[in-house]
C-alpha cells in the first residue's frame, strides 16, 4: 500500500467513526434539551434530590449495587433530602414520599389508584390480577373478591389455621438445638394454609408441590426486583437475551403448574357436584349464630382503632353484613360465578386472581411471622409477656385456638403490629400519577406522568410519631399511643381504596400460627437487630436468613420456668 493510500484509508475510517459520534452526541443533546423544556422535568427539578446526569439521570446510582445495599442507599438519601426525594431514571421521574400527610394525599385518593409501570414485570406471572389491574376491571374484581375475606368466612378458617400450625410445630421439632432458617417453615405453612382456605383444596389432594412453589416465588421476586433497579433489564429485548429470561420461564412453569392444578381440581369438583345436584356449601349461617351466642359481635381489636382512618372497603363489608347472604370462599366464588354467570369473570381472569392471591397471601405472612419469631428470640422480656398472656388464656392445655381466644391476645397483637412497623413485609408502594397533584410538604406540585414511591419502611420510623423509632417496643401500640397518631404513619397494609384485601385474614392467621408456635417453643436468637441485613426485595427479607433456635416450652408461667 502507498503512503497516499494509507492516508486515504485513515481519513475514511476516521470519518466512519467521527460522523456517527457527532450524530449521536447531537441526538442526545437535543433529547436533553427537550427533557429540560418539558413540564415533567421543570416540576421534577424543583424537588430536592441528588444531582442528575444528562440522559442517564440518577440511574447510575444503583449500578453495581446489591439488593441489600439499596435499602441503605434509599434510607441515606431520605436522611439527606427529607420526606420528598426526587430521582431520574433516564427521563423517568420517580418521587419518594414518606410524610404521612403526603402519603394520605396519594393513598386516600380515588384518582391516583393506578399502579406504577414497574408492576408490569409481574405480568407474565400474575397477568392483570387485583394487585396490578386498573379501571373497571380492578373495581369490579375488588368488589367481588373483598367480601370473600369477610370476617365470617375468616372465622370458619380457624380450624384449618390450627391444624396447619400444629403440623408446622411437629416439623420444626426436628430443628431442636440447631440454628435454622425459620422462614423456610413459615413459607411452607402459609402456602398450605392458603391452599386449604382461600382455594378450598383439601389436605388429601395436596402434594409436596407447595414448598417448590414457595421457593419458585422467592426466586421470581428476585428477578422482578433486579428488573426494577438494573435499568438495562427493563427492556424486554435485552432481558430476553439474558439467563434471567430462561430462569423465569422455568420458575413460571412451577408456579403456574400449581395454580393450574388447583383451578382444574376445583372446577372438576364443581361440575361433578352440579351433576349430582349438590350446591357449593356456603359459610355464613353457622358462624353468625355462634358469634351472637358468645356475645363477641362488639369486641373491638387493636386493628379496629389503628385502621379506622384507612377509609377502605373492608370494614364497610363487615359492618354492612346483611347476614343472610350465602358466603363463599375465594375460589368457590370465582368458579361458581364463571359457571353460572352471576359475576362476569372468565377462566383466564380466574387464573390471574388465583396467581395473585396465592402470591400476596403467602409470601407477606411468611415474612411477617418470621420477623416476629426472630424479634422475640432477641427480646426475651417481650417473649415472656407474650407467653404469660397465652398461659393466662390456655393454661397448660394443648387445646386449639378459638376465634374468641384471638380476641384476648392483646399483647401478641401489639407485638405483631410493632413487628410490621419496624419490618413491613411490603416495603414500598408505587403509583403512577395520571394528574398533577399538590402535596402538603412545601406545597410541591407533583407532575402527571411521575411515579410516586411510598417508602413504608421510612414512614414507619418517623420520630415525630414514634418516640424511639428504631427501638422494638410493642407499647407503641398501647391505646394511649395510637389514639391520636396520624393514621397514615402506619401503613403496613397500604390504605385507602387499594388497601390490602387480605388484612384481616393475615392478622387472624398470624395470631393462630404464632400462638401455637410460642405455646410449644421458646425462641432464641444470638443475632442482634443491628446485624440484620435487610433486602428490600418485592417482599422485605433478611438476606442473612431468618436464623433462630428453638427450645422446648415448659407449660408454666414464665417466672416459674
Ligand atoms: C402481613 C401480611 C400482609 C401484608 C403486610 C400485606 C400488604 C399489602 C400491601 C402493602 C398492599 C398494597 C400493595 C401495593 O399497592 O403495591 C397489598 C395489596 C394486596 N394484598 Fe396484601 N398483605 C398481606 C397479606 C395478604 C393476604 C393474606 C392476602 C390474601 C389472602 C393479600 C392480598 C392482597 C391483594 C389481592 C392486594 C391487592 C389489592 C388491590 O390492589 O386492590 N395480602 N397487601
From TrEMBL:
Give me the residues that bind heme, please.
Answer: 500
**Listed InterPro entries:** Cyt_P450 (IPR001128), Cyt_P450_CS (IPR017972), Cyt_P450_E_grp-I (IPR002401), Cyt_P450_sf (IPR036396), Cytochrome_P450_Monoox (IPR050196)
The molecular function terms of the Gene Ontology recorded here are: heme binding; iron ion binding; monooxygenase activity; oxidoreductase activity, acting on paired donors, with incorporation or reduction of molecular oxygen
Which UniProt keywords are given for this protein, alphabetically ordered? Answer: Heme, Iron, Membrane, Metal-binding, Monooxygenase, Oxidoreductase, Transmembrane, Transmembrane helix
> Sorted alphabetically, which CDD domains does this protein's record hold?
CYP4
Sequence similarity: Belongs to the cytochrome P450 family.
Please identify the protein, giving its name as recorded. Cytochrome P450
Instruction: State the organism named in the record.
Output: Leptidea sinapis
Amino acid at each position: 500500500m502507498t503512503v497516499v493510500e494509507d492516508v486515504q484509508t485513515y481519513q475514511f475510517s476516521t470519518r466512519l467513526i467521527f460522523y456517527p459520534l457527532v450524530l449521536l452526541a447531537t441526538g442526545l443533546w437535543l433529547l436533553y434539551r427537550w427533557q429540560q423544556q418539558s413540564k415533567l422535568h421543570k416540576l421534577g427539578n424543583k424537588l430536592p434530590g441528588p444531582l442528575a446526569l444528562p440522559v442517564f439521570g440518577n440511574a447510575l446510582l444503583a449500578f453495581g449495587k446489591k439488593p441489600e445495599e439499596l435499602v441503605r442507599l434509599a434510607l441515606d438519601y431520605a436522611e439527606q433530602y427529607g420526606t420528598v426525594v426526587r430521582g431520574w431514571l433516564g427521563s423517568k421521574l420517580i418521587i419518594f414520599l414518606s410524610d404521612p400527610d403526603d402519603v394520605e394525599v396519594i393513598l386516600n385518593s380515588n384518582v391516583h389508584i393506578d399502579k406504577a409501570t414497574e408492576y408490569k414485570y409481574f405480568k407474565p406471572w400474575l397477568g392483570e390480577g387485583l394487585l396490578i389491574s386498573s379501571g373497571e376491571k380492578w373495581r369490579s374484581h375488588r368488589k367481588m373478591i373483598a367480601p370473600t375475606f369477610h370476617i365470617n368466612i375468616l372465622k370458619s378458617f380457624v380450624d384449618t389455621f390450627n391444624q396447619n400450625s400444629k403440623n408446622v410445630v411437629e416439623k420444626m421439632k426436628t430443628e431442636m438445638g440447631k440454628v435454622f432458617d425459620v422462614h423456610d417453615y413459615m413459607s411452607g405453612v402459609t402456602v398450605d394454609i392458603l391452599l386449604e382456605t382461600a382455594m378450598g383444596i383439601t389436605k388429601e389432594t395436596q402434594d409436596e408441590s407447595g414448598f417448590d412453589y414457595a421457593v419458585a416465588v422467592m426466586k421470581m421476586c428476585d428477578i422482578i426486583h433486579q428488573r426494577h433497579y438494573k435499568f438495562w433489564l427493563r427492556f424486554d429485548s435485552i432481558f430476553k437475551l439474558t439467563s434471567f429470561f430462561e430462569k423465569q420461564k422455568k420458575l413460571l412453569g412451577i408456579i403456574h403448574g400449581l395454580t393450574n392444578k388447583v383451578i382444574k381440581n376445583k372446577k372438576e369438583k364443581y361440575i361433578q357436584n352440579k351433576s349430582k345436584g349438590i350446591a357449593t356449601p356456603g359459610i355464613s349461617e353457622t358462624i353468625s349464630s355462634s358469634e351472637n351466642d358468645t356475645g363477641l359481635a362488639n369486641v373491638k381489636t387493636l386493628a379496629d382503632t389503628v385502621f379506622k382512618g384507612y377509609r377502605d372497603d373492608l370494614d364497610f363489608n363487615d359492618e354492612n353484613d346483611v347476614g343472610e347472604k350465602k358466603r363463599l370462599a375465594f375460589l368457590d366464588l370465582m368458579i361458581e360465578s364463571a359457571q353460572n354467570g352471576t359475576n362476569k369473570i372468565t377462566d383466564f381472569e380466574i387464573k390471574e386472581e388465583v396467581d395473585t392471591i396465592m402470591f400476596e397471601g403467602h409470601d407477606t405472612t411468611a415474612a411477617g411471622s418470621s420477623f416476629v419469631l426472630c424479634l422475640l428470640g432477641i427480646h426475651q422480656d417481650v417473649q415472656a409477656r407474650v407467653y404469660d398472656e397465652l398461659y393466662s388464656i390456655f393454661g397448660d392445655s394443648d387445646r386449639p385456638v378459638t376465634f374468641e381466644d384471638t380476641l384476648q391476645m392483646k399483647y401478641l397483637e401489639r407485638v405483631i403490629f410493632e413487628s410490621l412497623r419496624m419490618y413491613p413485609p411490603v416495603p414500598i408502594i408505587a403509583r403512577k400519577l395520571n394528574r398533577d397533584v399538590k402535596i402538603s410538604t412545601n406545597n410541591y406540585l407533583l407532575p402527571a406522568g411521575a411515579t410516586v414511591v411510598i417508602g413504608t419502611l421510612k414512614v414507619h420510623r418517623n420520630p415525630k410519631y414514634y418516640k424511639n423509632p428504631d427501638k422494638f417496643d410493642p407499647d407503641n401500640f398501647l391505646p394511649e399511643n395510637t389514639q391520636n397518631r396520624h393514621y397514615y404513619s402506619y401503613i403496613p397494609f397500604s390504605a385507602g381504596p387499594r388497601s390490602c384485601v387480605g388484612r384481616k385474614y393475615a392478622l387472624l392467621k398470624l395470631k393462630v400460627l404464632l400462638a401455637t408456635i410460642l405455646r410449644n417453643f421458646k425462641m432464641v436468637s444470638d443475632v442482634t437487630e443491628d446485624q440484620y441485613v435487610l433486602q428490600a426485595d418485592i417482599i422485605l427479607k433478611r438476606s442473612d436468613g431468618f436464623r433462630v433456635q428453638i427450645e422446648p416450652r415448659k407449660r408454666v408461667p414464665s417466672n416459674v420456668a
